[in-house]
Amino acid sequence: MPQYELIYFNAAGRAEPIRLCFHYANIPFKDTRVEVNEWAELKHDRKKVPFGLLPVLLVDDKPLCESHAIIRYVAKLTDLDGGSNTDEVAHLDQCYELCRSFHEATRAYFLACRGYGHEDKTKLLDNVFVPNVEKYFGHIRSQLRPSGFFGNTVTYVDFAWFRIIEFYNQHNPEVIQNHPEFLGHGRRIRDIPQLQNYFKNRPETAF
């Protein structure tokens, strides 16, 4: 089996869905978490970080960059991508891009929650976050299957959406609490037996 090393900051962020795929499939990988003071040097290491961005997945020391490429690669590796069913793969891809569109549309508010930028957080809540919740949540909810997941069983899309909702529920529970379907979805992820050890031991991080 190849040796996998996932390099990201000491945070959940873009790496968390990738970690969840590995843990769900019980595939060993090195979870390298980079502190801020280490990043100043590491970002110039073009063998490990070719584009100067994280996350990076090293596969037998060969780097794969860009978080969306990595999650799709790992989803296929772990059989969490819909398998050989072309229609299911396309459905999941559609769901993933829909979730991604919501996250990108609310990025300014996401950054404000983390303390970045100069825009007023309350204004971003009212002018960016809430309008996009109203725009996207109904569409995203409609993609959930009777299984309670985006596919017939759990998939990489579920892990990606789980992390988005988890972050915003930490920072704005009064909005997220109005969407019980997504809270239930999160509970289903947290109840997955293969993930119990990771959830019990994963570090508390800022984002």
Structure description:
Its EC number is 2.5.1.18. Residues 85-207 form the GST C-terminal domain. InterPro entries: Glutathione-S-Trfase_C-like (IPR010987), Glutathione-S-Trfase_C_sf (IPR036282), Glutathione_S-Trfase (IPR040079), Glutathione_S-Trfase_N (IPR004045), GST_C (IPR004046), GST_superfamily (IPR050213), Thioredoxin-like_sf (IPR036249). Keywords: Transferase. Pfam families: GST_C_3, GST_N. The structure is a single chain. By secondary structure, the chain is an alpha+beta fold. The chain folds into two domains: 4-80, Glutaredoxin (3-Layer(aba) Sandwich), CATH 3.40.30.10; 86-192, Glutathione S-transferase Yfyf (Class Pi), Chain A, domain 2, CATH 1.20.1050.10. It has helices spanning 16-25, 36-42, 67-77, 86-105, 107-113, 121-142, 156-171, 173-176, 180-190, 196-201; strands at residues 4-9, 30-34, 56-59, 62-65. Helix 1 (16-25) links the parallel strand 1 (4-9) and strand 2. Helix 1 packs across helix 7 and helix 4 packs parallel to helix 7 (156-171). The longest helix has 22 residues, at 121-142.
